[in-house]
Amino acid sequence: MKILLLHSDYIEYEVKKKTRLAEPFEGKGERVDEALVVFISVEKGDTEDTALKAVEEISEVAKKVNAEKVVLYPYAHLSSNLADPETAVKLLKFMEEKLSSSFEVHRSPFGWYKAFKISCKGHPLSELSREIKGEDIEVTQALRDEEKAKS
Amino acid sequence: MKILLLHSDYIEYEVKKKTRLAEPFEGKGERVDEALVVFISVEKGDTEDTALKAVEEISEVAKKVNAEKVVLYPYAHLSSNLADPETAVKLLKFMEEKLSSSFEVHRSPFGWYKAFKISCKGHPLSELSREIKGEDIEVTQALRDEEKAKS
Ligand SMILES: [Mg+2]
Q: Shortest CB distance from A142 goes to which of B76, B116, B127?
């Protein structure tokens, strides 16, 4: 699983068109202010265990930046090794449920073309990425460089 | 090299803070309307040849969506195998120069924390990604799925 976490003033999205893989969705979209927006590629081999590790990472970052809201935004462009749509939707729903005990959670629908507007705050923790594998979490090089830069 | 191409109503960014890897930059930021915004991770092993292939891909997409402006936006979060900063900046400048013969090109500075706002249009070609390797261009699974969906 690959995730990109953006601490945002707002995100606003609107569904435009279904892809063949679209999950059922009746709404038009929504706007969420002051949120940690998490773009997510669920990858082949990801399990509930992977998803739980992602939930821990997301929770930790949300707490650090004082975000009370989390937006889960399925995003196919972070990986070239995507899980099948059924698994992806299942794990996204699982993450939504787990995060809901601590945060106000919003989940945008899987498999739709969407227009979106986002405003990323720009402080040093406002853009982070993680690669979460079966066994452990790979902190991406960008973060390693940030961490080095701080040391 | 990994690139994420967003056909956008606008992008607006503001530099916030240098990282250790920052290239010199005197401005505050800028806003570009009606642009193809290209988020770019330059990777270890990328050469001018890789960059030229990326320029071809970017040009092709810009023409398809009728974008006259291209924004090159260095983005560390698309890869965990980043090139060193000198190579990255050198290839980004090279791409800027090559694209300038056909487009109005803007390049945001490398190695700065930046706040940004973007509005992605949401039509089927408004979000694409490519992985460009020495030998050939890997169309990501997301695009393959889109292409299958259309067939
Ligand atoms: Mg879109």
A: B76
